[in-house]
């Protein structure tokens, strides 16, 4: 899949801070929503993933705020999965207003944790791939 997965969200009034900007914590929620929607589009529901006793673990987030968002703005939140070797993977995301202006960028480091052993598993890409019905939504 050449383009990253994306989902459209409308900024709601109750998500704004006292200056009328989107509250900084909500940017992370938008990105989390896009990651789960990407998994769902790939055929991996939360229940399906958790039935394997494996769950996602975010190890690091770096958010870069570029331009403000205000109530009523429509944004596309992208999700690009970046696979590598070992126990971790990266997720690169952008929050883009419909006029093309990038409002924020998020770079995440994550892994999959064995919920019984409480340890990261080896090769999370392989685990995800086995569960997918549409692997193109996760960059496979």
From TrEMBL:
Domain of life: Bacteria
Protein source organism: Streptomyces adustus
Protein name: Acyl-CoA thioesterase
Alphabetical list of InterPro entries matching this protein: 4-hydroxybenzoyl-CoA_TE (IPR050563), HotDog_dom_sf (IPR029069)
An example Gene Ontology molecular-function term: fatty acyl-CoA hydrolase activity
One Pfam short name: 4HBT_2
């Amino acid at each position: 899949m050449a383009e990253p997965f994306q989902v459209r969200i409308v900024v709601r009034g109750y998500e704004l801070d006292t200056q009328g900007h989107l509250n900084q914590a909500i940017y992370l929620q938008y990105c989390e929503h896009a990651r789960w929607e990407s998994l769902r589009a790939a055929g991996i529901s939360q229940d399906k993933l958790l039935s394997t006793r494996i769950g996602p673990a975010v190890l690091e987030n770096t958010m870069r705020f570029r331009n403000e968002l205000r109530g009523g703005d429509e944004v596309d939140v992208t999700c690009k999965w970046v696979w590598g070797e070992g126990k971790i993977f990266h997720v690169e995301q952008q929050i883009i207003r419909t006029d093309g202006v990038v409002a924020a960028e998020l770079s995440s480091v994550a892994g999959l944790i064995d919920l019984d052993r409480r340890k990261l598993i080896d090769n999370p890409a392989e685990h995800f791939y086995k569960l997918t019905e549409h692997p193109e939504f996760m960059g496979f």
